[in-house]
Amino acid sequence: MEWSFDSPGGAVTVRREGDQAICQAIRASDGSGFYKAWLHGAGKRFLLGTLIPEGGALRLRRALPVAQLERRGVWPPVGAEILPAEPAGENRPPAGWNWVDCPGRLMRDPVAASAGRRLTRALLRRGEEGFELAFPLDPAAPFPLEPLFCLCRLERIERAWYLLFSFSARGCPELPHSGGIFGETKRES
User: Which member of 70, 141, 142, 143 lies 3.0 to 4.6 Å from 75 by CB, making a disulfide possible if both were Cys?
Assistant: First the structure.
C-alpha cells in the first residue's frame, strides 16, 4: 500500500513493506534553509526528519516500524507536509502561552471539534474561566476553525498577528468580548 501527499514545493510518499513504513520526501532546493517532513494521522503529527541536499534537491528517506507509527497515532497516514525548519529559539511560545498539539481534542462542541481535528498545532493560554487558542495569521492558509469564523478576533501577540478563539472551561466556544477570559486587553490606538 502506498500514500502520496503533495506539499508546497515538494511531496511526501509513504509505502508499507512488511512491518516497515518507507517514508520519502523531496523538495526543490531553493537555498532558503532547512526543511522538515511531518507525517499526519487522525489528529496527530510525527516528525519524519530533516531533508538534506542530494542530487540538486532536498531529500529524506527513512524506514520506520509501522507499530511505532501506530503508537504515535499517525498510521495509517492521512496527510504529510514539508515545512521550513524553525531556527533555534523561534519555536518558543510567547510569554503566557504554550504550544499544544492537536488542539481539536480540547473542544467539546461537536462542530468545533470536527473542524479542529485537522489542526496540528496552536498556542494555548488557560485562565480560571476557560482557555484561548491562537493560530498564526496566514492569509494563504485555510482559516483554522471555519465554523467559528464569527467568534474569532485578530490580536497581536509579541511581534506577530494571531487569530484568537475563546472557549469555556468545558471546551465550548464563547463569544468574543473586550475583556475575554483574561480581563481587559490592551488595544493600540
Answer: 70
